[in-house]
Amino acid sequence: MNTKTNQILLVIAGLFLAALTSRSSTPALMALPFLAYLAAGVLTAPGDPLLRAQRSLSRKRSEVGAPVEQEVLVVNEGTDVPRLVLREPALAKLHVTQGDLVLAKLRLTQGDLVQCVSLPAGQTAAMRYTFTGRRGRLAWEEAQVTVSDLFGLFETQRMLPAPAQVLVLPEQRPLYRLRVRPRHTIRTAGPNLSRLPGAGVDFYGVREYHAGDSLRWIHWKKSARQPRTFFSKEFEREEMADIGLLVDASLAANPARGSDSLLEYSLQAAAALAKTILRAGNRVSLLVLGERIVRVFPGSGKRQLARILDQLSACEPGEKVSFETVKYLPVRLFPSRSMIIVISPLRQRDFNALTRLRAEGYQVLLISPDPVAFAARADALVGLDGQKSFAVRAARLERETLLRRVRQMGVQVVDWPVDQPLDAMLRSLRWAER
Amino acid sequence: MKHTVRLPFWICLGAALVLPAAGFGLAGLWPGVVLPFAGLALGWAGRRAAWAWMPDALLALDAGLCAVGALLGAPAYLMVAGAAAGLACWELSGQPEPGEHPLAQRYTQEHLKLLALSVGVGLLLAEAGLLLRFSLSFGVLFGAALVVMFSLYRLAVLFRGRSS
Fold first, then answer.
1. pTM for this prediction
2. By Cβ atoms counted within 10 A, which residue in A30, A62, A313, A331 is the most buried?
3. What is the domain-level CATH number for residue A303?
4. What ipTM was predicted for this assembly?
5. Which residues of chain A does B114 touch, with a Cβ-Cβ cutoff of 8 Å?
6. Rounded to whole angstroms, how far apart are CA atoms B27 and B52?
7. Has residue B1 been placed in a domain?
8. What pLDDT score was predicted for residue A309?
9. List of chain B residues whose C-beta atoms are within 8 Å of the C-beta of residue A115
10. Do A69 and A164 fall into the same domain?
């Protein structure tokens, strides 16, 4: 029995009471339409329903902002159901907390989340809607159905199992200007010049002719000067490199402003870098330091990209592990002599971690989303007073000093104000000649 | 044909306002003519402020107003019809417009039919009861009221058990 039924009973009781106290039959007769309405509800109330639900999604993996269609079907395998209300209860659980703000993980773009139908025996009711999601895993376990008489006076609520999930990946914007120049390569064919002779297209040097060398490789000019000897051209071998991505996902380093968080930019950058570097033919590994340590071992190809994107999607900010923890981790977490791309807003205390990486011989590139510009941009919308303006200038000076110290260690730095696309900022990268 | 609940709702709302107002007017109870329209203003304010309890409160007020009007001498047939129209209006106010889906259209059609039938039958019985005047002793009336209340209570217990 629900509030609707209680309301009708209350009105009927009130009318009868009025009839009794006034000793007049008129109020009692006035209750007859209400009694007939109630009786109609009783007579059309369904028995025990036999329903089955099924849920399907247009895609199992999506990107932030990309629409996903969902269809929920309910099949009636029992008797006629006069009124069936189908609604999505799981949406109440699909929220993420960011500070004091509770943000919905998904946003409805088309369709309704509640549907009321009459479902005869053997028929199927369908509810379709389109949504876009925030980064992460969106999962549904059940569909909620309410079966009742035509007026909704006597209801039965059921939760029908209908599991499904979709993984929303971070945005992967192309990086056309990214040029990585790893100093060390591994003995596998790839896109990077290795400073070793072998198969390739870049001229490396000249050597004596060996039996089996192609006639097209003969250096005719030099051979003409040495009558009895032939010389062959050598080319620079192109090899694969190991590149590690290290993402700082600690809460303290990644401020949030409303629904926007600096961590989302870091993860977008990591996704874009992984895609670009893997497509170039290199090996990529991933280490994320946040709520927990997330590790993806080095690999190449589309599967490796899928593994990395899955981990980035599920990444949650936290305080259990921070970037400065790197100085305590085993150094061989990354392959020796590999290149490490660190994505971190960087704090003073993180300097020692970078020092350790450089001391162990890693080639380090730091892509640092600017937390000062991020916080100042949000404050600028409400107006900066004198005190805040001074604080912003002091923080900026502190950051510039820190980045200068990092550069002096031999680390390439990209200071990235996140309102600019990362691709534009990569133009500032200048690699030292070998 | 696409079914809609908007037109039946406005018809029932009009009847729920005009019938009691006409009854009060015929009885010379001029303050009573204004009260149904004051209820309309309350309902509009409640809709703007998204007060979920407002439709229930208006139903109780409408039934109470019609009962009081009948007791004060307004024509009983108009007051009973006004209360029945108020009930239909309250039921239709909670119904969303049906979508394009044929099952949703079917539900709206069945719902409107049953509402018209149940409220219509109840209204006819009530109007017939007004015509067929007979006297009942207080004891009989009290006993009848007790039986009705007890039956309603048993129904509620029965359906609470079925729902759980």
1. 0.74
2. A30
3. 3.40.50.410
4. 0.86
5. 40, 44, 150-151
6. 34
7. no
8. 94
9. 99, 101, 104
10. yes
